[in-house]
Amino acid sequence: MESTLPAVAEELLKEIKKAFQETSHVPDDLLLGLKFVFGPSAVPALDLVDQRSVTRVVSPSGRTAYQVLGSAGKLYTCYSSCHFCTCPAFGFTVLQKSESLLCKHILAVYLSQAMGACQELTVSEEQLTSILLAEEEDEG
Predict the structure, then answer these.
(1) pTM of the entire predicted model
(2) Which positions make up the signal peptide (predicted)?
(3) Which of 85, 86, 80, 58 is nearest to 13 (CA)?
């Protein structure tokens, strides 16, 4: 998978994964780096990881999407392969204003992957299609 995150963000996520694998926690210096690189999304994203709000949804063909239960109880669909989230904050702060690299939901996906905190859900191709189309209907 080709990444579109800046190299410093990629490296930070790799370091977090390595540290978590070795010690089962993220050191303070990496938490500070997370806050520095990702700004105001960092702490809420960590909260979502702590609450185990990230679910990796996989179909038999291997297609994957992530669902994140937001802090307000709404379910958002995220695509890590293209760094996209269906939340309004992504559209506004990431796409329109370019104030942030990612929203808290996508950052929570990356952190959950690094810390092995993703829940797993296997669905049929039809169920995954319904999940994806439901997002389009919500927007329309």
Answers:
(1) 0.89
(2) none
(3) 80
- For residues 31 and 109, what is the distance between their CA atoms, to the nearest angstrom? 16
62 domain residue, yes or no: yes
Range of the domain at 32: 7-131
Residue type (1 letter), 121: L
Tens digits of per-residue pLDDT, 21-33?
999 999 999 999 9
Is residue 123 pLDDT above 60, yes or no?
yes
Q: Is residue 79 a contact partner of residue 66, using CB atoms and an 8 Å limit? A: yes
Tally of domains within the chain:
1
Residue 48 tokens read as 């979502």
Tell me how far apart the 2 most distant CA atoms of the chain are, in Å.
Answer: 45
Q: The tokens of 30 are what?
A: 């990496």
Give a yes or no: residue 138 inside a domain: no
Residue 22 belongs to some domain of the structure: yes
Q: Does 136 reside within a domain?
A: no
pLDDT tens-digit map of 72-113? 899 999 987 888 999 999 999 888 888 888 999 999 999 999
Name the CA radius of gyration of the chain, rounded.
Answer: 15
Where is 105: in which H helix or E strand? helix 104-115
Instruction: Round to whole Å and give the CA distance between 85 and 69.
Output: 12
Q: Locate tokens 């500070």: which residue?
A: 32
